[in-house]
Amino acid sequence: MSRPAIILKLILGLLWVIIHLTISLFNLWSLLIYNLQCYLISSGLLRKYQYLHLDRLNYLAIVVDSKEAKNTVKIRQLLSWLSTMGVKHICLYDIEGVLKRSFEPFMNGSKDEKARESLDIGASMNHSHYGYKNMVIDCLSGSDGKEGIAKAADLLCSTYFNGETHGNGKKEPKFTEADMASALKAVGCGGPEPDLLLMYGPARCHLGFPAWRLRYTEIMHMGPLKSMKYGAIVKALYNFSQKYQNYGKLLGFSTLNCSPAKSMNSF
Amino acid sequence: MLLSRSLSRTARRTRLQLMDHRRLHAGAGAPPPLALVQSGIRPESLPRHVAVVLDGNRRWAQERGLLTPDGHEAGRRALEHVILLSHAWGIRALTTYAFSQENFRRPKARPSLPWPNFSCTPIGIRVHVIGDPSRRPRSLQDAAREAEEQTRNNSKLHLMLATCYSGRWEIVEACRELARRVQGSLLRPEDIDEQLLAGELRTSAAAGEELSCPDLLIRTSGEQRLSNFLLWQSAYSELYFTDTLWPDFGEAEYLKALSSFQSRERRFGQRTA
């Protein structure tokens, strides 16, 4: 290889290293700023985060990666923090049902006092809720998501065609969203739509949280559960309180200036 | 020492990526697009299906003192650009959310399709229009039908334009389809399961079950919600929310989204038996 080519290769290599160094430093700086902000929020030094207006937060969902959901200490800590912040109604979800099984002894009225004490849980309420420090908590899993919708579809079809056996049985099935909502409730998979959903885990996805209940839910990724921070949760709740939702409606005029006739020639 | 180790790891990783690119495409025809290589994106790790909520056209126009139709026109150009980029980068399916059923509640709302102003047929793009056809004006229904008909033999990129669409409506429609099969004695109600329902969704009918669910879902303009879009299909989709308004979403932003998709550890929510 000629000398100019070697020099060029060295220069390009150096530039590459400089770019990666810059990006790494930027990432490190961002992480430091984030940790500092969380600390300041936790300490109450940032005034705007001191008073959270949670009147719009009627129902909070927490989605946890199933592997991380086994960390009951962290889950308990999270619930404790949320209780302190004034959150009243929470839905815990993980796809494999780890959280459901963690709280199952109390949902079924177990008399295992040691287990109850370890999770610091009060009296159970009904089959899917339990009380914890003035909060109502629902536990959901994958069986309440897509499986639940499939069960509701089964119920809708069964009910419709059983009803039709006395008629001519040939009417086109006309299910509506209201029918589906009722069927979901009947199979035990109904419930309110969360206003806010916090995701804990490595991947930024909702992991099959019941699809029917996710229409307008604000979704925020919080990172791994083991790294959760009080300040980060306060910030998430604060940001949520500042959001405006128009639920698809708008006070202005909205249309696209496209002519279908013109577009037919485009294809 | 920590920093130098990190740098050498980064440099080694980049060299390996470049070697992978050359090996992968040795004798295979066209090399990966330069933009992907320069961004460190591995073509084999690209999402197969990308979904986009095109949000922010009106705000974009307002910020510039323009009228809303100007914002939508800019949005249409941005959409064309993203379609062509997706096509060039080998993404197999692109679903865009243009007009929801809720948007009908807007005053003077008139649904139309953000049609790209280029011909899809020569470049192998197949157009599908998903949503409730009964809520579209007749002219739009005809245009949609014609576009689908003219591009039905294409398969390089499935372009699904969601208009007059709602995730809940789609789920209910899937139930209705299954109910019709029950009515025709092709199915028993107790046989209905997740897989059957998933097979009846509009995205499955359009692009096949393999490409029905997006790997990456992008929403622009800073909003962080699905707004009734692909509620079933987005279970394991990587959600990428950006503050950029849709008309400003170009190649650089798209590369950022793809890079973010690639860098996160992904698990697909597979449950243990």
UniProtKB/TrEMBL annotation, chain A:
Subcellular location: Endoplasmic reticulum membrane
Keyword Signal part of the UniProt annotation: no
Gene Ontology MF terms in the entry: ditrans,polycis-polyprenyl diphosphate synthase [(2E,6E)-farnesyl diphosphate specific] activity
The UniProt record lists the keyword Transferase: yes
Cited SUPFAM superfamilies: Undecaprenyl diphosphate synthase
One CC-aspect GO term: endoplasmic reticulum membrane
Pathway: Protein modification; protein glycosylation
InterPro entries assigned to the protein according to its UniProt record, in alphabetical order: Nus1/NgBR, UPP_synth-like_sf
Catalytic reactions of this protein: n isopentenyl diphosphate + (2E,6E)-farnesyl diphosphate = a di-trans,poly-cis-polyprenyl diphosphate + n diphosphate
EC number: 2.5.1.87
Record key words, sorted: Endoplasmic reticulum, Magnesium, Membrane, Transferase, Transmembrane, Transmembrane helix
Membrane-traversing stretches: 12-34
Cofactor: Mg(2+)
Homology family: Belongs to the UPP synthase family.
Protein name: ditrans,polycis-polyprenyl diphosphate synthase [(2E,6E)-farnesyldiphosphate specific]
Lineage of source species: Eukaryota, Viridiplantae, Streptophyta, Embryophyta, Tracheophyta
UniProtKB/TrEMBL annotation, chain B:
A GO biological-process term: polyprenol biosynthetic process
SUPFAM superfamilies for the chain: Undecaprenyl diphosphate synthase (SSF64005)
Keyword Transferase: yes
Coiled coil: none
Gene Ontology molecular functions: ditrans,polycis-polyprenyl diphosphate synthase [(2E,6E)-farnesyl diphosphate specific] activity
E.C. number(s) listed in UniProt: 2.5.1.-
Classification via Gene3D superfamilies: Decaprenyl diphosphate synthase-like (3.40.1180.10)
Broad EC category: transferase
Keywords: Transferase
UniProt cross-references to InterPro entries, sorted A to Z: UPP_synth-like, UPP_synth-like_CS, UPP_synth-like_sf
Family, as annotated: Belongs to the UPP synthase family.
Protein's name in the database: Alkyl transferase
Native organism: Digitaria exilis
